[in-house]
Amino acid sequence: MGVIVLNADYLPHQTVSVPHAVRMLVRKVAVVEEAAENRVIGPYPWPKVVRLVRYVYQRWIMPSDRFTRVGMLRRDKYICRYCKKYGDTMDHVIPESRGGATDWLNCVTACEDCNFEKADRTPEQAKMPMLWEPYIPKGKF
User: What are phi and psi of 72, to 5 degrees?
Assistant: First the structure.
């Protein structure tokens, strides 16, 4: 069973695990509003409901206009755009040596084999069509 997290204005925000709630208490971004009787975790009462008292920055939300390699891998769900296998390398559709940019529309996830096979060529030159086109993600990914 999870711990209910309330906003500073006492409206429900989310439900988190007990360890997560305790970390929030340790960081002093939340206080216990309701606790289980006769149960403690270290110096804290066993939380059932906590309330946020400070703004919490959620670092996993990245602006979609800022390109990062990790963001690109997440966008593609770590699936190679050429063969659908697991991919963890970045491939430039138009190679950098030919003027290709490092951005959302020119970079895709590729497996090591496909990235090596495509090398310094475009997908058409390598006869390796992409299974779907790159795009700029919107919001969370």
Answer: -65, -40
Q: How many residues comprise the chain?
A: 141
**Cα–Cα distance list, 27 to 7, 19, 44, 108, 121 (Å):** 16, 12, 12, 38, 50
Residue 11: HSE in the Cβ half-sphere, 13 Å Cα cutoff: 2
Tell me how far apart the alpha carbons of residues 11 and 48 are, in angstroms, rounded to a whole number.
Answer: 15
Q: Give the residue numbers spanning the domain of 100.
A: 62-141
Model confidence pLDDT, tens digit, residues 16-30: 999 999 999 999 999
| Cα–Cα distances in angstroms (integers) from residue 100 to residues 4, 121, 132, in the given order | 48, 11, 18
Model confidence band, residue 57 (pLDDT cutoffs 50, 70, 90): low
Residue 73's domain is classified under what CATH number?
1.10.30
The pairing of strands 44-52 and 3-6 is parallel
**Whether residue 35 sits in one domain with residue 9:** yes
Residue the block writes with tokens 């919001």: 139
Number of domains present in the structure of the chain: 2
Reply yes or no on whether the pLDDT at 7 is more than 70.
yes
